[in-house]
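Sample entry (78 residues):
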Amino acid sequence: MQRIDQRDWAWILYADGERRYLSVLCGTVAMYELILELDAAERARLQEPGFLDALAREVSYRPDAFKARHVAGLQLMD
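Predicted structure, serialized as C-alpha coordinates:
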Protein backbone atom coordinates (compact mmCIF):
# COMPACT_ATOMS: atom_id res chain seq x y z
CA MET A 1 0.00 0.00 0.00
CA GLN A 2 1.47 3.32 -1.05
CA ARG A 3 0.36 6.86 -0.16
CA ILE A 4 0.07 8.78 -3.43
CA ASP A 5 -1.66 12.04 -2.47
CA GLN A 6 -3.10 13.79 0.54
CA ARG A 7 -4.73 16.90 1.94
CA ASP A 8 -3.72 17.36 5.58
CA TRP A 9 -6.57 16.88 8.07
CA ALA A 10 -8.96 15.91 5.25
CA TRP A 11 -8.03 12.87 3.15
CA ILE A 12 -5.28 10.50 2.01
CA LEU A 13 -5.27 8.58 -1.28
CA TYR A 14 -3.57 5.16 -1.29
CA ALA A 15 -2.69 2.83 -4.16
CA ASP A 16 -2.49 -0.95 -4.06
CA GLY A 17 -1.74 -2.04 -7.61
CA GLU A 18 -4.65 -0.76 -9.69
CA ARG A 19 -6.86 -0.28 -6.64
CA ARG A 20 -7.27 3.14 -5.04
CA TYR A 21 -8.44 3.77 -1.48
CA LEU A 22 -9.53 7.12 -0.09
CA SER A 23 -9.21 7.61 3.66
CA VAL A 24 -11.42 10.50 4.81
CA LEU A 25 -11.33 12.17 8.21
CA CYS A 26 -14.89 12.51 9.50
CA GLY A 27 -16.57 13.85 12.62
CA THR A 28 -16.62 17.03 14.64
CA VAL A 29 -15.93 16.42 18.32
CA ALA A 30 -14.98 12.76 17.92
CA MET A 31 -12.89 12.19 14.81
CA TYR A 32 -12.91 8.92 12.87
CA GLU A 33 -11.84 7.61 9.50
CA LEU A 34 -13.87 6.17 6.63
CA ILE A 35 -11.92 4.25 3.99
CA LEU A 36 -13.52 3.83 0.58
CA GLU A 37 -12.28 1.76 -2.33
CA LEU A 38 -12.79 3.95 -5.36
CA ASP A 39 -14.85 2.45 -8.15
CA ALA A 40 -13.91 2.61 -11.84
CA ALA A 41 -15.80 5.86 -12.47
CA GLU A 42 -14.13 7.54 -9.49
CA ARG A 43 -10.68 6.26 -10.51
CA ALA A 44 -11.24 7.70 -13.98
CA ARG A 45 -11.84 11.14 -12.43
CA LEU A 46 -8.75 11.22 -10.21
CA GLN A 47 -6.91 13.63 -12.51
CA GLU A 48 -9.76 16.15 -12.53
CA PRO A 49 -8.79 19.22 -10.51
CA GLY A 50 -10.70 19.31 -7.24
CA PHE A 51 -12.33 15.88 -7.62
CA LEU A 52 -10.77 14.33 -4.50
CA ASP A 53 -11.47 17.42 -2.41
CA ALA A 54 -15.12 17.38 -3.48
CA LEU A 55 -15.54 13.64 -2.88
CA ALA A 56 -13.85 13.81 0.52
CA ARG A 57 -15.99 16.81 1.50
CA GLU A 58 -19.14 14.89 0.56
CA VAL A 59 -18.00 11.85 2.58
CA SER A 60 -17.11 14.04 5.54
CA TYR A 61 -20.43 15.94 5.50
CA ARG A 62 -22.59 12.84 4.89
CA PRO A 63 -20.69 9.87 6.36
CA ASP A 64 -23.84 7.80 6.88
CA ALA A 65 -24.36 7.77 3.11
CA PHE A 66 -20.91 6.17 2.65
CA LYS A 67 -20.67 3.80 5.64
CA ALA A 68 -21.77 0.83 3.49
CA ARG A 69 -18.66 1.40 1.33
CA HIS A 70 -16.26 1.54 4.31
CA VAL A 71 -13.48 -1.06 3.99
CA ALA A 72 -13.19 -2.27 7.57
CA GLY A 73 -9.92 -3.77 8.75
CA LEU A 74 -7.82 -2.50 5.85
CA GLN A 75 -4.26 -1.85 6.98
CA LEU A 76 -3.08 1.39 5.38
CA MET A 77 0.68 1.79 5.53
CA ASP A 78 3.21 3.95 3.72
